[in-house]
Design a protein that fits this description.
By secondary structure, the chain is mainly α. It is built from two helices and no strands. The longest helix has 37 residues.
Length: 78
């Protein structure tokens, strides 16, 4: 009987962690959208528009939406 209770608690914790992860990902996606609205659709404020871009370093940009959007706009297709 003790094993059954332990298994139920373990399954609950795994499910709760997954829900927390999804909630956090949704929050980061919303934050990205709010930044785009605040910056009037700009992905960055650095003065790099007239320079060719070959590499981009993505450090802590959330779920990857920023890097994906930036790549679609600024990096050539390989």
């Amino acid at each position: 009987m003790m094993r059954s209770r332990h298994l139920k608690l373990t399954c609950y914790r795994i499910l709760a962690n997954r829900l927390d992860l999804q909630t956090e990902q949704d929050r980061l996606d919303l934050q990205h959208h709010l930044f785009l609205l605040t910056l009037r659709g700009k992905l960055f404020l650095a003065p790099i528009n007239d320079k060719p871009i070959h590499n981009v370093l993505d450090i802590g940009t959330g779920t990857g939406i920023w890097a994906t959007d930036f790549g679609k706009i600024h990096l050539p297709l390989f």
